[in-house]
Automatic annotation (TrEMBL):
Gene3D superfamilies: 3.30.460.40. This is Nucleotidyltransferase family protein. InterPro entries: NT_sf. It comes from the Bacteria. It comes from Hymenobacter lucidus.
Length: 162
């Protein structure tokens, strides 16, 4: 990820916070931002988790479109208003601006929004999922990149006594 994209993500996320949109940052970028040993882990996009509530998703889409992000749902442009039926089973909306990708996930197969929301914490003015939740999601998803991230994380931990 280029420094320009990371700066764009941070700026956009701060705008969403200021607009009152409820979310938490998940994915490899959230891991990088709170785990110094994985600070160089590649992040190709920015993943957010939002509650699956149409008004929340509409507020996010409205704000992102207003500041130049193009929003799609399964490669189709998104127009407001959104409906529950339109979104159900599709898992996320994808926002693009220049070459930056912001995924607005609203369905998570590993952990419900309420658990992420209860555990999220603020880091540099942004709501992040806990490292515990993020690493647990990697373990459950168990893709090769997830396995490597977990391996590097575990290798960075200090050895216990004895």
């Amino acid at each position: 990820m280029s420094p320009e994209h990371e700066q764009l993500y941070r700026h956009t996320l701060h705008e969403l916070v200021a607009a009152g949109v409820e979310f938490c940052v998940i994915g490899s970028l959230a891991v990088r931002w709170q785990c110094s040993t994985l600070a160089r882990w590649p992040a190709h996009d920015c993943d957010l988790l939002l509650p699956f509530e149409v008004p929340v998703l509409e507020a996010a889409v409205r704000h992102l479109q207003a500041v130049g992000w193009e929003i799609k749902l399964w490669q189709e442009p998104v127009a407001l208003p959104l409906t529950q039926a339109q979104l159900q089973g599709k898992y996320y909306l994808r926002a693009r601006r220049q070459e930056a990708i912001l995924d607005l996930c609203y369905e998570n197969e590993f952990r419900p929004w309420a658990e992420f929301a209860a555990g999220r914490h603020w880091h540099q003015g942004l709501p992040l999922a806990t490292l515990e939740h993020l690493l647990d999601q990697c373990a459950r998803r168990n893709r090769p990149a997830d396995q490597e991230m977990l391996r590097q994380y575990r290798a960075s931990l200090p050895l216990g006594p004895g």
